[in-house]
Amino acid sequence: MTFIAKPQINYAGQARNALDLTTRDYEGTISTLCAGCGHDSVSAALIQAFFELDISPHKVAKFSGIGCSSKTPAYFLSAAHGINAVHGRMPAVATGSNAVNRSLYCIGVSGDGDSLSIGLGQFAHALRRNLKMLYIIENNGVYGLTKGQFSASADVGTKAKKGEVNEQQPIDPVVAALGLGGTFIARGFSGDKEQLVPLIKAGLNHDGFAILDVLSPCVTFNDHEDSTKSYAHTRQNFHRAIRMDFVPPAEPIRAQSEEGKTVSVVLHDGSRILLRQASHDYDPTDRSRAFSYIQEHQERGEIVTGLLYIDEDRGDMHTLAHTIEEDLVDVPFEDLCPGSDALAELQNRFR
Amino acid sequence: MEAVQESGLNDFVIKLATVNGTGSASANSLLMRAIFRMGIPVMGRNYFPSNIQGLPTWFEIRVNHRGHLARTGRVDLMAAMNAETYREDLAEVSPGGTLIYDSTWPRDATLAREDVEILGVPLARMCNEAFTGVRPRILMKNVAYVGALAALLDVDIEVLRGLLEETFAAKPKLVGPNLEAIDLGFQYASQHFDCPLSTRIQRLDERREHILIDGNTAAALGCVYAGATFAAWYPITPSTSLMDGFRTFCEHFRKDPATGKNRFCVLQAEDELGAIGMTVGAGWSGARAFTSTSGPGISLMNEFLGFAYFAEIPVVLFDVQRAGPSTGLPTRTQQSDLLACAYASHGDTRHVLLLPANPEECFQFAVAAFDLAERLQTPVIVMSDLDIGMNDWMCRNLQWDDDYRPDRGKVLSADELEELPNFQRYLDVDGDGICYRTYPGDHPKGGYFTRGSGHNTAARYTEKADEYQEGMDRLTRKFDTAKSLVPAPVQLSAAQATTWGVISFGSSDGAIREAIELLAEQGIHADYMRVRSFPFGAEVQKFLDDHERIFVVEQNRDAQLRSLLSLELDVAKERLISVLHYNGLPIDSPFVYRAVYEQVKQSAAA
Predict the structure, then answer these.
(1) What CATH number is associated with residue A210?
(2) Which of A81, A96, A98 is the closest to B448 by Cβ?
(3) Distance (Å, rounded) from C-alpha A142 to C-alpha B61?
(4) CATH class of B490-605
């Protein structure tokens, strides 16, 4: 399969955003993933989120590594630059790009193999730098492109399509991120777009590393009865710890609290997220509570979803590196080169 | 027959044997800089252990009025300050040489040499009496031996005083004790020995247009002047001081005057894979970005080098080579990464290499590397080594042309994209193999998906045989274009016509130039070419064609330059005679002299 051009279909009455663009302007090429792949739903959620946020498509930089998930940046935002890096090393490439071009929205799409096996170190260190990016892990528990080997997120006891049983402990990116000091930690499900879209919006506007683990079933290799990453299993066991609305800076808050109290967190750019607690004892600003909550539910076989932890005040990589507010790529050469007089002066110290 | 190399006025080698971590490095540097200030060509080489404190370390200063600063293997004056290595230090002194040692404690009387003058100075005793505190006593003992050497070598005390005042400008209280220590050694030597020695200094004052600088510092400065805004690295000897230098210069030159914030970003990555990945990301985004490393880092960076080659992303690497393989000798020099860099990564790849021979070229090639990386949209590796990178070399003043503007290569602006019907990232419109690129965020028409998988001219994924092969052939075309852009070789013609040639690269240069001069005095003439880049241009082929036998001098075991010449150019292997120096020490001129002399005499006899 090579590339298939996607026809631009425009019809009257399409919704247009503040930039006078339609969702078509946020699409990419036609997906070459299997029919029914969870990843395509994530791409659709991304398209909707970028469209609704009125972000110019070319003001986004897309990053991915290697694997099924890493192909997906081709399937949204064709006008944006994207880079399909080497396996497990996308966080480094995103780091370098964001370091010099911070005004672009930075989004990475990775998988459980790319992030939790070969790229676990890079994932942890991008998080540690608090690189301002939305980092999505499309998590399906298997290596799809190499035909169904277990990944590091496969649960103990889960059975491969060919019958092999996984006995190794899984690495849960959400629990890992909590332990590593992550500042925005969320989990979603590719089959729950209603929850996914606001999580994407909030993650894109978080002032730091926003990790969004999306359970995204592999229809070909891991959607059978003995899998804990199947559509059926996920639908049956997923548990929303918290409901969330994303409110852009200019918009008034409309959402009403249905149950429990509503907590509002103001993001760096002035947008807000409204957290409505599905479960009355959940507080997403309490790291240790988030830990125990997730673990308690995990022991019951439940998959906790939602924005599970947020700390908006840590300061991103640029804050820590004291870089200028402007993009480094925009600094004129005259401001970068000290010139011949300075060189002559400087050399006095080498005599 | 040995080369005639006798010590004497403004022509000798001093070696200082000390213990790592005792502060001897600054004392040694003080002595070297004083000789430099008196106008005599000088170079210092540090032979240090991979250790922070306690192991033996040596500093070697070559003084030569003719400007030959390569290693010679000779020691005319040894300062044996490390009891642990006294035996081997004494053994290393050349016949007729002098050794000074700390006579506070008796030395082993069985260790003596008829042909070496041994001078004892009670350094520790004098310093213990003059100073208080353990650390000051240790530090001042180093300064005191500089004083004793100054008396023996006739180094101007006023020059030492000036240097100390500059060094401690911020802490003027330290000048007094240091001068006192200098004086202790100086007075003792003056009173007890016949000063100065025949190997001594006489002011020349011919070196005003020169500086003493190490290659890493010079390269760092080149990166600043080239306009690099991003650097990522992982600490590794012997390249660490390059990034330290870059950061220090940026702190000085690159603060936004309005906000005090940084117009640069230096990130210490989690490993070399991260460092090169970040550099690739920044280069892709339109910044001038680089990483510095050494052999083990190059090994780790291979995958990304192939990616940047195939996806055509400009990045600059500095490989400050050390002795391999594996961890090898982290604090010793070698030129053994040549092949690993030329063909780094799996699949068909070839990389542009720049091969500086001294710190001045480190500065110039750093700037050239960014221009070439952006012009050619590919990784450019500047291959220095520990000898160049970490030792202080005497170089001509670094020059800067204020009319210089970076060559950003073929980049489409937003306006140009607006006019363009459609943009194809990998379309070669003018036959040089180089395509137009776009920066992220500039224009919606400029967007494309960069990938290390097969791609066609429109940057779309492809597995089609013809599209893939077309792309690979274009990369070959691009590499051919590079031949005319990279720095040309430097040539030195023999005084008379000869069929012998010598070819080398990098830090082997000094030893070869000296050897060639000595050989000419013996009636052996050879033309010399130092290649300064890869791919090789037409001049290199011509040099091979013009000489019957060519010595290929390099500092590695496996004759990597010879291999590269054989692989890339048309030359019969047997015409290339290897001269290989690979024990971790910098190549010395007598070694080159002997190798060439013996081969030429043997050929004449045959």
Answers:
(1) 3.40.50.970
(2) A81
(3) 62
(4) alpha beta
Structural domain includes residue A347: no
Residues in chain A: 351
Closest CA to B563 of B354, B399, B335: B335
Establish if A15 belongs to a structural domain: no
Q: How many domains does chain A have?
A: 1
CB–CB contact B221 A342 (8 Å):
no
Task: Kindly report each contact of residues B47-50 with a partner whose C-beta sits within 8 Å and lies 24 or more positions away, as own/partner.
Answer: B47/B331, B47/B332, B47/B585, B48/B20, B48/B331, B49/B20, B49/B331, B50/B237, B50/B329, B50/B330, B50/B331
User: What fold does the segment set B213-396 form as a domain?
Assistant: Rossmann fold (3.40.50)
Look at B286 and A100 and tell me if their CB atoms are within 8 Å: yes
Residues in A 234-293 with any Cβ partner in B closer than 8 A: none
Closest chain B residue to A319, measured at CA: B261
Task: Decide: pTM greater than 0.80.
Answer: yes
Residue B207's pLDDT band (cuts 50, 70, 90): low
Enumerate residues 289 to 318 of chain A having a beta carbon within 8 A of any beta carbon in chain B: 317-318
Share the mean pLDDT of chain A. 91
Mutate which of B278, B363, B453 to test chain A, going by most A C-beta atoms within 10 A? B278
The C-alpha R_g of chain B, in whole angstroms, comes to 27
pLDDT bucket at B8, cuts 50 / 70 / 90: confident
Provide the b/e sequence for B358-386 (b: ≥16 CB within 10 Å).
bbbbbbbbbbbbbbbbbbbbbbbbbbbbb
B278, B447, B462: residue with CB nearest A2: B462
Q: Does A70 touch chain B (CB under 8 A)?
A: no
Has residue B509 got a pLDDT over 90? yes
Q: Cβ atoms within 10 A of the Cβ of A295, count?
A: 12
Q: CATH 3.40.920.10 in chain B, residues?
A: 11-192
Distance from CA of B111 to the nearest CA of A (A): 39
B380: left (phi over 0), alpha (psi -120 to 50) or beta: beta
Q: Which residue did the predictor score with more confidence, A285 or B314?
A: B314
Closest Cβ–Cβ partner in B253, B284, B452 for A342: B253
Pick from A103, A322, A331: CB nearest B229: A331
Measured in angstroms, the CA of A22 and the nearest CA of chain B are apart by 15
Instruction: Give the helix/strand (H/E) hosting A157.
Output: none
CATH fold of B11-192 reads Pyruvate-ferredoxin Oxidoreductase; domain 3 (3.40.920)
Q: Is B293 helix (H, G, I), strand (E, B) or coil?
A: strand
Residue A348 lies inside a defined structural domain of this protein: no
In Å, what is the CA distance from B335 to each residue of B153, B322, B340, B533, B565?
Answer: 35, 7, 11, 14, 15
Nearest Cα neighbor of B368 from B358, B357, B356 is B356
This complex has an ipTM of 0.95
